[in-house]
Structures are given as structure tokens and as C-alpha cells.
Amino acid sequence: MCRLLAERRALTRGDGELLRLYATSWDRQRQADAAIQIEGIVVQYTRLDSNGQPHQVEKPNINLAIAERAEKSMVAILDRLGLTPYHREKVKPAAHEVKQDFPKGSIGWLRQQMKEKEQNVRSIN
To answer: Which of 79, 78, 75, 66 minimizes the C-alpha distance to 33?
Structure first.
């Protein structure tokens, strides 16, 4: 997803948390779907009646609700990132960072130096 957003020039630092939430939802959906594949869409549960006697009842698998909630969350995140047909045109490309020249020794200059060092470390790793 990051590669696709970067190609569209729509990836920003602010997207990190949305991408983390998407990954979490994706993982939940995959786990719930795997459980559904094993257990089935409808499963039997044991319920006790008013006399305390157990009875088997068929109910939808509880993993269906988990999968559906995760899927809704994923679609909402895709919408916000502009990765659905409806919202694709609504996301504007990110502007390129403009490098400012700060006076040497100023706080802006120090921050710029630190940022450049961080970027160099990231590119090495």
C-alpha cells in the first residue's frame, strides 16, 4: 500500500497510523476468515435451558462478526487513503518538501540537520 500511495504521490507521514490500523484490521480479518473456513459459517453451540439442561443450537459463527467489522474498517481506511474508485480523485498529491535555508546555528537549522541525519540512517538501513 505504501508503494501504491508513493507512486500516486499521496503518501505522507500522517498516514502511518492509518496504515497500522489497516494492517491490524487485515490481520484480524484473515484470522477470523481462517476460523470460519475451519468451523463453518454456522456452528453448533451448547445452551442451557431454564432447567439447566444442555441443548445444541445452531448459530452464525461469532468469527463472522469479527471479519465483517474488520472488513468495514479496512474499506473506511482505504477510502480515507484514496484507494477506492469513489475517493481516488478526492486525494490530492502531496507537495514536495521545500528545503528552507535557516541561519546556521538557529533552531531551524539544527532541526534540519537532525532530520537529514535521520534520513541518512534510514537510507543505510
So the answer is: 66
Whether residue 29 contacts residue 71, with contact meaning beta carbons closer than 8 Å, is answered with yes
Radius of gyration of the chain (CA): 24
Chain segment 96-111, per-residue pLDDT in tens: 555 667 788 888 778 8
Q: Write down the pTM of the prediction.
A: 0.65
Domain extents for the chain?
A: 2-94, 97-125
The string of pLDDT tens digits covering residues 49-58 is 999 999 999 9
Burial per residue of 21-36, b for 16 or more beta-carbon CB atoms within 10 angstroms, e otherwise: ebeebbebbeebbebb
